Amino acid sequence: MKKVFVSIFECKPGMRIAEDIFNEYGAIIIADGTVLDDYLIERIIDLGIHRVRIYDTEGNVIEVSNSELFRAQYNENVNSVKNILHDISNGKKIDTERMNHATRSILSRINENRDIVNCISEMRAAGEYLYTHSINVSLLSMLMGKWLKYDFGKLRSLVTAGFLHDIGKCKVPQEILNKPGKLEEEEFEEVKKHCVIGYQLAESFDGMNEDILKGILQHHEREDGSGYPFGLKGDRIHETARIIAVADIYDAMTSNTYYRERFCPFDVIECMEKDYFGILDHRIISIFLRNIASYYLGEMVRLSNGEMGEIVHINPFNIARPIIKSGIKYIDLSAESKVKIAELL
Ligand SMILES: [Fe+2]
Question: What is the percentage of the chain residues whose pLDDT exceeds 90?
Answer without folding.
Answer: 41
